C-alpha cells in the first residue's frame, strides 16, 4: 500500500472506484464524530467510545472476511499475517501503510509506517491526548477470525515511535507483567477484550 503522506481523502476522481469513495467517506465520518464527541464530552469519552466502536466494527469485518475467504478458526501465524493484510487493505486502502511479516512458526510481526488518521489529528491539533484504538482494532480482528492470539504493541507512531509495531504469537499467552514493570501488553482472544498498560518510554511499549 503506497500513498503520499500529504494526500487527504476527498471526493473521488471520476475514474475512482466505489470502494475508494466509500473509504474516503468512512474516514470523513470517523473524524467528524470523534471531534464532535471530544468537543461536547471531552477527549477521554471520545477515546473510550472510539475504542469500543472500533472493536465492534473490526470483529464484524473480520468475521465476514473469514466467511468469504473460507477461513477456519485457529489460524496459523502465516494464515493470520495473510488475513490481516487482506483485512487492512479492505478497510483502509492506501490510507494506512502496513506490513505483516511471519517471524516464526507461531509468530508474526505487524509494522504500520503510516496512518492517515494520526496525520489528520495532528492537523486538527487534537493528536495530544488521543488514544490509538489499535489494540482494540486488532482484538476485534482476532475475535472475528476466531483465533486466540497473544498480541503485544512494542512501538507506537503517536508516542514517537518509527512505526506502530506489534509482535504476535499463536502459542499460549505469557503471563502479563504488573503495571509497575513499565510494560504494555495486549492480549486478544477469540472472545476476549483487548487490555493495555502504558509504558513511560515514548514510542516503546514492551521489550
Describe this structure in words.
It is a single chain. With 207 residues, this protein is of the alpha+beta class. The protein is built from 5 helices and 5 strands. Strands 1-2-4-3-5 form a 5-stranded antiparallel sheet. α1 runs antiparallel to α2 and α2 packs parallel to α5. The chain is globular. The two termini are 28 Å apart. The N terminus is likely disordered.
How do the strands and helices of this protein lay out in sequence?
Layout: H1 18-41, H2 43-69, H3 77-92, E1 96-104, E2 107-115, H4 116-124, H5 134-144, E3 149-155, E4 164-169, E5 186-188
Antiparallel strand pairs: 1-2, 2-4, 3-4, 3-5
Strands, total number: 5
Mean pLDDT: 80
| Number of helices, counting only DSSP H or I runs of 4 residues or more | 5
The main pleated sheet reads as: 5 strands, antiparallel
**Category by helix and strand content:** alpha+beta
N-to-C SSE series? HHHEEHHEEE
Quick description:
The protein is α+β, with helices and mostly antiparallel strands. Helix content is 42%, strand content 16%.
Annotation keywords:
207 residues; alpha+beta; five-stranded antiparallel sheet; 5 strands; globular; disordered N terminus
